[in-house]
Amino acid sequence: MPQKWFHFCMIFACITNMSFAQKQILFTKVQCVLMSSQFIKVDCVQESNNSITIHLTTNNKDIANLWIVSDLNLYIFGVKNVMRLHGLRTEYCKAPTPGSRPNLQTMLYQGIKNAQKCPLRRNSSYLFAQIKFDANYLPSYLPEYNFTYVGNLFGDSVKSGELRMLGSFCFTYNDCTGTAKANV
Fold this sequence. Notes:
By secondary structure, this protein is mostly beta strands. Helices cover 14% and strands 45% of the residues. The chain has one domain (23-171): Ganglioside M2 Activator Protein, Chain: A, CATH 2.70.220. It contains 2 helices and 8 strands; from the N terminus they run H-E-E-E-E-E-H-E-E-E. Strands 1-8-7-4-5 form a 5-stranded antiparallel beta sheet, covered by helices on one side. Strands 2-3-6 form a 3-stranded antiparallel beta sheet, with no helix packed on it. Strand 2 and strand 3 form a beta hairpin. The longest helix is centred in the first third of the chain and has 18 residues, at 2-19. The N and C termini lie far apart (42 Å).
């Protein structure tokens, strides 16, 4: 009988430890594509495995509204089991409501460091430096997975650019970067 309690306590401790473990979102590839003349430049740079920097330069016209329509594919157990989140719209010019519960939308808003003042002025540069996405906004029960992200950037209802990212979501004590060296 004491042995059963010991096993129960060990299993409970392991589950509790995993549910409170820190999680991270890592990027393996980041790419930006310019798609209209509203911007002169759309550049993406992967600063580290968990942060990116985006640089936008506007053309000779003010941009009153800016938003991103996101498509996210989560590969939890290989290519056959995919969870798709399509058409998630994130407004750049509007801040999230205070006290909103942690979710994917809030994580995107926090990643771009709160809303900026709009309109975006003509012939100006905008730098989104060291963008990091906080994995604590995601549900605690979510397993580790790989993801592909496509963000379509719209300025005044014109598709102006595209942001593509590949990456993974995992616990900090696991190496999900694919760069771990085997012990030989």
